């Protein structure tokens, strides 16, 4: 199934979903789609990622700087979101055309100011990142361990701290 971006541009957030969201000043809704499994509506705003149940309950409302990554499976029509705090990934299935996967990518990239990968070999890596809270403009620092990296790896933690110090200096946070 080929998706037309043009078709996705006409998508509208249902009125009941819009009413359930308490949008901040300056917050705009950018894209939405209904999850085939739960019936929840997933909504991307310029500030946050939301999921609203069919009953109008806000199930998720997290700022973009807490999203580590989003991945889209065209075969499964599935969007997977991973979080910087390593909470369980969120997964949704969208069979209707939507710009949500592209919007997630754009918003996550917009929140990354600078990033510095650190690798010490097999399963010993991570990233130091300066992110922006897209609702306030504040700069935030993050240290993210790679898959399988251990929090008690002293050498890796030292290298990540040095990378973060360098990034902070680059953006004037020191």
Question: Which helices and strands occur, and which strands form pairs?
Answer:
Blueprint: H1 5-8, H2 15-20, E1 29-34, E2 41-45, E3 48-52, E4 58-63, E5 67-73, E6 78-83, E7 90-93, H3 100-111, E8 112-119, E9 125-132, E10 139-145, H4 154-171
Antiparallel strand pairs: 1-2, 2-3, 3-4, 5-6, 6-7, 8-9, 9-10
Structural write-up:
- This protein has 174 residues and is an alpha+beta fold.
- It has two domains: 105 residues, Pleckstrin-homology domain (PH domain)/Phosphotyrosine-binding domain (PTB) (PH-domain like); 61 residues, no CATH class.
- It contains four helices and ten strands.
- It has a four-stranded antiparallel β-sheet with strand order 1-2-3-4, covered by helices on one side. A three-stranded antiparallel β-sheet has the order 5-6-7, covered by helices on one side. A three-stranded antiparallel β-sheet has the order 8-9-10.
- A hairpin with a 6-residue loop joins strand 1 and strand 2.
- The longest helix has 18 residues.
- It is globular.
- The relative contact order is 0.14.
- The N terminus is likely disordered.
